[in-house]
Hints:
- With 706 residues, this protein is α/β, with parallel strands linked by helices.
- It has an eight-stranded mixed β-sheet, sandwiched between helices. A six-stranded mixed β-sheet has the order 1-2-3-4-6-9, sandwiched between helices. Strands 5-7-8 form a three-stranded mixed β-sheet.
- The protein is globular and about 90 Å long.
Amino acid sequence: MSELVSYETRDGVAVITINNPPVNALSPGVPEGIGDGVQQAVSDDTIKSIVLIGGGRTFIAGADIKEFGKVTSGEKKPSDVFHLLLFQLEDCPKPIVAAIHGTALGGGLETAMACHYRVAVENSHVGQPEVKLGIIPGAMGTQRLPRLCGISKAAEMCAKGDMVTARDACDFGIVDKIVEGDLLEGAVAFASEVATSDTPPRKTREISDRFGQPQANQAAVEKLKAGIAKRARGQIAPLKAIEAVEMAATTPFMDAIKKEADIFKECLYSDQSKGLIHIFFGERTVSKIPGISKETPRRAIEKAAVVGAGTMGGGITMSYINAGIPVCLKEVNQEQLDKGLERIRQNYAASVKRGRMTEDDVEQRMALITPTVDYASLADVDIVVEAVFEGMELKKKVFSEIDAVAKPDAILASNTSTLNIDEIASATKRPESVIGHHFFSPANVMKLLEIVRGKASSDEVIATSMDLAKRLRKVGVLVGNCFGFVGNRMFGPYLREAQFVLEEGARVEQVDQVMYDFGMAMGPLAVSDLAGIDVGWRIRQEIKHLIPEGMRTPLVADKLYEMDRYGQKTGAGWYKYEGRDAIPDSTVQELIETTAREAGIEKHDVSDQEIIERTVYALVNEGARILEEGMALRSVDIDIVYVYGYGFPAWRGGPMMYADSVGLDKVYERVRHFHETQGFWWEPAPLLKELAESGGTFGQFVQSAN
Ligand code: 3H9
């Protein structure tokens, strides 16, 4: 047997074990090894049945995703070894039992379903998550799954890609038995038992009595499609997965798997799949920091403090207590503290209402908060997260007060979204322990955490912060200390261009609709209303001195500010609001037109394409500078920031990958054109120019730089 797959026998049962850490992906050699094991078992008369099990922490997490890129780039030919193995398993004359622990995902579940029986431990999960990679199950999963659990459940699992627990899988008919105690022992016992049966092993592809009622299936699928249209807006794979699953009830197995293969291929070669796979690996890449290893010491984080119980402070507190870390919540006075606690309670109450939590869960979490108005209460915490109003003097004052009471090895983190971490650190006697932890609003929901490295931040503090991000169920991205860091620094040009095109003739709702259709979670002007026109105004005051005299700046946002139209919170901004519903406002349109006319801005027909190019290429051009300056470690770090913090469509791979896929020569050409027509703001980033002229990509730049 190969090193990847081992073979042993136990009381007349062959045990085939996959050993391909960390997740037993079906890398080259694994399917072959399993096939050899099956053959050996079949040719040994003393063997009555077979158990297929994963070594280490899991069963099989699916096809080796790294191989997909090799196939689509032409480096490797597609192989049918895996498909052949699945037929070999299913057609094996001796019963095969898949023994599942950890996860059986994608090709892992497809392997298990080609076996005759499946047993699983209670805390394991199964699923077809392929759509999250922009593909559909491509190894007959769309045909075998509905034969086990029915069309509507299979369609849901394949279209949403979420895992289900082993217990649910058992109820749905996917898993035959939950094994208590030792999995291998239980699986061997089960395999011995089924070997005594007179009937031949059950083949999943021959099961035909579980599809469900056509009418009920159709209704369920329609509902699913409506949900998908919202949840996976713009994505191809989920609807294709449903189409493939629906075939199971109407098309003979062998014909249906040919169609499944065609759809799989269509999806695999799409830009969407490339984008989503980029984000899958990117999410893991960002946790790897050059110079920081597993051996870098970490500080223990058992207890935290949050200073400031406003919207951000409250959300940060919820992130900590949701992860089971107690928080000392500090405010300036009892009234503010009570308000903050009440806001947290209300947020949890909404989750209870939606059935996501129980009252008991809420009480348990609230019990983890120790409210205080006294800095002295922060003396025993391991980390303090400051979330007070954005202003340098205030932040420095707060940091010096925290520094005076916090224990010597406590980490002091600032939730600043723009300010200089080094200057904040200078207010303390422990700059090595000061770092930025920039959460995104709502902090208890948004997955991104920008971890801002000050010039003195120690490796230990950075490593602890990266680990902590995972504990808080966030994706931590290490960024450099520059104004706005990565996310907000790029967001400035994006928002600026969204406003410039308005002044040049686009309409508010047109700009937002175009960007929404591009795939953004919200249009830029709706975001600006959500974040607060006043917040944007305050940031503009901070950077005013950096803008050369006479330079064009957006004019209307300041006017909205002066009119007290701060956005959603005041019921009016770029839109007027009825509840959370944004309604286009003719007053704003008139204001834009008058302002532009008075400023002598020439109007033209702004096309949808121009809106995309002006806004997205503004992001990209700034991203190129950030990359060149080393403020982001790799271009994928920028992509992750934008996907998880700013609602950039994951299926486009983030802004930098999007630019790579358009072609940097084309992007550069447009940036140069905008520079000629718009001037100053569009000066091409040197890195963009260099890569465009040398035929490079941002992705490659990463590789050569590290
Ligand atoms: C498929 O199966 C298609 C078929 O239908 C048809 C084929 C014809 N391949 O996430 P972690 C790496 S598509 C290669 O940190 P966790 C991962 O990059 C596949 N590598 O661990 C990381 O590497 P590194 C369908 C993989 O415990 C390391 O393993 N399956 C794969 O937090 C540890 O991963 C999926 O989509 C893979 N399949 O979570 C499942 N999976 O250490 C994708 C992981 O160098 N995987 N790696 O950074 C997952 O969802 C999670 O990894 C899992 C473990 C839940 C399994």
